[in-house]
């Protein structure tokens, strides 16, 4: 288990150091801002939709390692997927990071997002890990207001 934990940590550190799909996406069809006041994480998510498909997605902002890595991994996970698939993935990710830590999480089909299973033990960190996803949802729903974890 501790080897798995170390692997998870190294993935998170790598994505924090070198976030994927980082930067603005000029002319994006959808965008939204997110803010996690508890930790100070701020993020902006840009989405280019082609029909129902997330053709491109980028993000920018400043935050802790968990929030940055989560945003980075999220962009990789949903790029090329449909809006409905992204929603479903958010549902699974959300239950992964919030489910009872005494139970084995259902990580089928969520790929690298499994690295966040450990945040279940730290409720404050759950907000860091889910901020990008809440912001993505707002962007897709075309909501102008800032997504807040509180
Ligand atoms: Zn944070």
In terms of topology, how is this protein built?
Blueprint: H1 2-17, E1 30-36, E2 41-50, E3 53-62, H2 65-78, H3 83-98, H4 123-141, E4 147-148
In the predicted model, the low-confidence regions spanning at least 5 consecutive residues are none
Estimate the strand proportion.
15-25%
Cα gyration radius (Å): 14 Å
Shape: globular
Count of discrete alpha- or pi-helical segments spanning 4 or more residues: 4
Distinct small-molecule ligands in the complex:
zinc ion
Q: Please, what is the average pLDDT?
A: 91
Percent helix: 40-55%
Count of individual beta strands: 4
Q: What top-tier CATH class fits best?
A: Alpha Beta
Order of SSEs, N→C? HEEEHHHE
Alpha-carbon distance between the two ends = 32 Å
Structural class based on helices, strands and sheet pairing: alpha+beta
Multimer state: single chain
Strand order of the largest sheet: 3-2-1-4
Number of domains: 1
CATH topology: Sufe protein. Chain: A
CATH architecture: Alpha-Beta Complex
Largest sheet: 4 strands, mixed
Give structural notes:
- This protein is an alpha+beta fold and 150 residues long.
- The chain has one domain: Alpha-Beta Complex (Sufe protein. Chain: A).
- The chain is built from four helices and four strands, in the order H-E-E-E-H-H-H-E.
- A four-stranded mixed β-sheet has the order 3-2-1-4, with helices on one face.
- Strand 1 and strand 2 form a beta hairpin.
- The longest helix has 19 residues.
- The model has no long low-confidence stretch (mean pLDDT 91).
- It binds zinc ion.
């Amino acid at each position: 288990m501790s080897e798995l934990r170390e692997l998870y940590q190294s993935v998170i550190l790598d994505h924090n150091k070198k976030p994927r799909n980082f930067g603005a996406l000029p002319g994006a069809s959808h965008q939204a801002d997110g803010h996690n006041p508890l930790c100070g994480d701020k993020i902006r998510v840009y989405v280019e939709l082609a029909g129902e498909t997330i053709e491109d997605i980028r993000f920018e902002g400043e935050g802790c390692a968990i929030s940055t890595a989560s945003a980075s991994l999220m962009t990789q996970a949903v790029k090329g997927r449909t809006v409905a698939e992204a929603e479903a993935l958010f549902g699974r990710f959300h239950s992964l990071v919030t489910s009872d830590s005494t139970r084995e999480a259902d990580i089928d089909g969520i790929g690298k997002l499994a690295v966040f299973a450990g945040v279940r033990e730290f409720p404050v960190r759950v907000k860091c890990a889910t901020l990008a996803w809440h912001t993505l949802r707002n962007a897709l729903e075309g909501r102008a207001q800032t997504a807040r974890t509180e």
